[in-house]
Design brief:
Elements lengths: L17 E5 L7 E5 L15 E3 L3 E4 L2 H12 L4 H15 L9 E7 L5 E6 L35 H12 L4 H14 L1 E2 L2 H9 L1 H4 L3 H7 L11 E2 L2 H13 L2 H4 L1 H14 L5 H5 L4 E3 L2 E5 L2 E5 L6 H12 L4 H4 L4 H21 L10 H4 L2 H8 L23 E7 L5 E7 L57 E4 L5 E5 L7 H13 L5 H6 L3 E2 L7 E3 L6 H9 L4 E3 L8 E5 L5 E5 L6 E4 L1
Parallel strand pairs: 17-18
Antiparallel strand pairs: 1-2, 3-20, 4-12, 4-21, 5-6, 5-13, 6-9, 7-8, 10-11, 11-14, 12-13, 14-15, 15-19, 16-17, 19-20
């Protein structure tokens, strides 16, 4: 196979109506706009992306994007902006942004340095493999709700590690926007009210949480000012003292006291021993492009890499975007890659992972050879795990020097464990559910996993987060992207990469495009409402696929496309109302 060849886009099942449109926000570059999505799709009009010449931040919240942009405008680099954006998201997007969770950072610096930073949470030292099983061996909800669900947070250590290595602005400056917004407040918007209101019953179970998010027992009103004084005080301590303020001192005391009140496991020793880890990123070739993404304990890079390697045996472009053949091949790749994910992957500090084999093109070609274009495979034919009958956020940044950073961070479910640390004002994660509580029993995202991801003291739980940077054949960073979405993260970013490389979709159209997902088990092809036309659904059913039109959205992609002349085109996902800002 010629890996340096750019596939030529051909006519497919849907006609692409292409016009040349100037980019909003200035600039001289333009992209072709794909204006025709499947009938009934909720985002039929592909608006022009934001254009900027010097720097750009794309996140799920306008205030967070503004905080990052202010650092770029002050002379900081993309890592400075990433730290400021991350801490601000902990204030303005509390259901997902966090200092009580963890995440992953992938960067390609202007000098071609490629790094991956792992600040995933760890299991407390007192954790045990069967801690979420009842007397009859059934999985309880203690890994999802309440104090026992929390792993040791890594976000503060991760942000400090990134800044220590690459940052240029003073640490305290990076936290100033977050502190100000927590102390002085911000205006409640419909999105925030919707998030709180939908989970009010669970949030009310914990007095410290209800006091912050449901004062008087009710969600705050749209247009009111939401203040978080305890969180502001914690952030100020972190600004003054660095990560040590979180992992020792009064914040650590507050965290341990909260654990004691609710029967959690995190101790002073757990906090003091936490460390963020620099790892070698997964780097793979896809049709002449380099894809730089996250290694284990994220499953994202390996699993997406496998899917890309498998579908590289097929000329997706000639099949036509969202044609039955395109979706069929992609889903067959997904089911095979997720089968390997669920069996082999875990914390590389605890389990041996056959990375060379899983990411080899020869192995991918052997899997591709088992795909029948006429018939869907049976997922159980690939299963090695015994069977029994989200909330995350992403942001992408590029600065004027060409440094590119992709960050995905999480507390797992919406509002994590639903527990706010009294006095410190931050939400604890419920990441322990990402472990295998019992082999063969699905977690809250329906993932059926094996022993490689079993709970062990100090171990990092497997993740699906997939912050990704795509480098073009000429060596230029072309795409910076990522998304939340639990188990769907991997397939969403796979589609972002193939939308860009195979189908040439402009960044705005790619982010707005409908998405589909398959994760091996359950053996089900899920797609967004009206995301596939009835004729395509019928053809896929004829081939043996079981399809389900999901009720809600899939993901919240934040992407930056870098054009040949250096112009930055940013697209924040309209699914959650994010914001691209640049200058």
């Amino acid at each position: 196979m010629n890996h340096t060849k750019r596939w030529k886009r051909r006519a497919g099942t849907f006609a692409f109506v292409v016009v040349m449109a100037g980019c909003s926000g200035g600039g001289t570059a333009s992209e072709p706009l794909v204006q025709e999505f499947p009938p009934g799709w909720r985002y039929p009009q592909a608006d022009s992306p934001l254009s900027a010449a010097h720097g750009m931040v794309v996140s799920t919240d306008s205030l967070a994007s503004a905080a990052g942009l202010s650092m770029l405008q002050a002379g900081g680099n993309a890592v400075d902006a990433a730290v400021a954006t991350g801490f601000t998201l902990a204030v303005v997007n509390p259901e997902a942004g966090n200092i009580g969770g963890g995440g992953f950072l992938v960067a390609r610096m202007a000098d071609d340095t490629r790094v991956a930073l792992d600040y995933r949470e760890k299991a407390p030292l007192a954790a045990t493999a069967d801690m979420y099983l009842d007397a009859d061996g059934r999985v309880t909800d203690a890994g999802v709700l309440g104090h026992l669900a929390s792993g040791v947070p890594g976000s503060v250590a991760g942000m400090e590690a990134a800044w220590s290595r690459f940052g240029t602005l003073p640490w305290a400056d990076l936290l100033e926007p977050a502190i100000r917004l927590a102390r002085d407040g911000f205006v409640i918007a419909p999105r925030h009210l919707s998030s709180v209101g939908a989970r009010a019953e669970l949030l009310l179970r914990f007095p410290s949480t209800a006091a912050v998010f449901l004062p008087g027992g009710e969600p705050p009103q749209i247009g009111s000012v939401f203040r978080q004084p305890d969180l502001a005080r914690a952030l100020q301590s972190i600004a003054d003292e660095g990560a040590a303020a979180f992992y020792a001192g009064w914040i650590a005391d507050s965290t341990v006291a909260e654990m004691d009140r609710g029967g959690g496991l995190i101790t002073h020793e757990d906090l003091a021993s936490y460390d963020a880890v620099w790892r070698d990123p997964v780097v793979l070739d896809y049709r002449g492009h380099e894809v730089i993404t996250m290694p284990p304990p994220s499953s994202g890079g390996v699993t997406m890499g496998q899917i890309l390697n498998i579908v590289e045996s097929f000329d997706l472009a000639s099949m036509g975007w969202l044609s039955a053949d395109h979706v069929h091949v992609a889903v067959e790749g997904m089911r095979r890659a997720y089968a390997d994910r669920n069996y082999f992957l875990g914390d590389p500090d605890f389990v041996e992972i056959p990375m060379g084999r899983l990411l080899s093109q020869a192995y991918a070609d052997s899997l591709a050879g088992t795909i029948d274009m006429r018939l869907a495979s049976d997922s159980r034919a690939f299963n090695r795990v015994p069977e029994e009958s989200t909330q995350t956020t992403h942001y992408s940044i590029v600065d004027r020097e060409g440094n590119a950073v992709a960050v995905t961070t999480t507390i797992n479910s919406w509002f994590g464990s639903k527990v706010v640390v009294r006095g410190a004002g931050y939400l604890l994660n419920n990441e322990m559910d990402d472990f295998t509580s019992k082999p063969g029993v699905p977690n809250q995202f329906g993932l059926v996993q094996g022993e490689a991801n079993a709970i062990a003291p100090g171990k990092r739980m497997l993740s699906a987060m997939t912050p990704t940077i795509v480098v073009g054949p000429e060596g230029r960073t072309e795409l910076v992207t990522g998304t939340p979405g639990g188990a769907t993260i991997i397939t969403t970013i796979f589609q972002a990469v193939t939308n860009h490389v195979d189908f040439g979709l402009p960044v705005r159209a790619s982010v707005d495009a409908p998405r589909f997902h398959h994760q091996h088990l359950p053996d089900l092809l899920r797609y967004e409402p009206s995301g596939l036309p009835p004729a395509i659904v019928q053809e896929l059913q004829r081939r043996g696929h079981v399809l389900e039109e999901r009720t809600g959205i899939s993901g919240d992609v934040q992407s930056i496309h870098v054009l040949e002349d250096g112009t930055l085109l940013g697209a924040a996902d309209r699914r959650r109302g994010g914001q691209a800002l640049g200058y």
